Amino acid sequence: MTKFISGNYYDGFYKYDKKSGYGEMYWLDKKEIYKGFWEKDKQNGFGEHIWLEKPSKSKSLRNRY
Question: What pTM, to 2 d.p., does this model score?
Fold first, then answer.
């Protein structure tokens, strides 16, 4: 697991010091999670990105992509 100064962390595989293959990224400062595949530090292929937002009339508490 790689923990960043911000408190965010990544648990997964690397190739040439870049996120590659399956991994899970947790952005605690933005309240987002991505669980899925990476290539060259970018989300790529199958995965699920979830972010939490403040509730409002037009938004739900959870959003997924």
Answer: 0.81
Torsion of CA 12, 17, 20, 23, to 10 degrees: 20
Condensed to tens digits (0 to 9), the pLDDT of residues 2-58 reads 999 999 999 999 999 999 999 999 999 988 999 999 999 999 999 999 887 766 656
Domain span at residue 18? 2-64
Phi, psi values for residue 28, rounded to 5°: -70, -30
Distance of CA 36 to the CA centre of its chain: 8
Give the Cα separation of 19 and 58 in Å (integer): 34
Please choose, from the candidates 23, 62, 63, the residue with its C-alpha nearest in 3D space to the C-alpha of residue 42.
23
Query: What is the total count of domains within the chain?
Result: 1
* Angle at CA of residue 20, ends 6 and 16, nearest 5°: 90
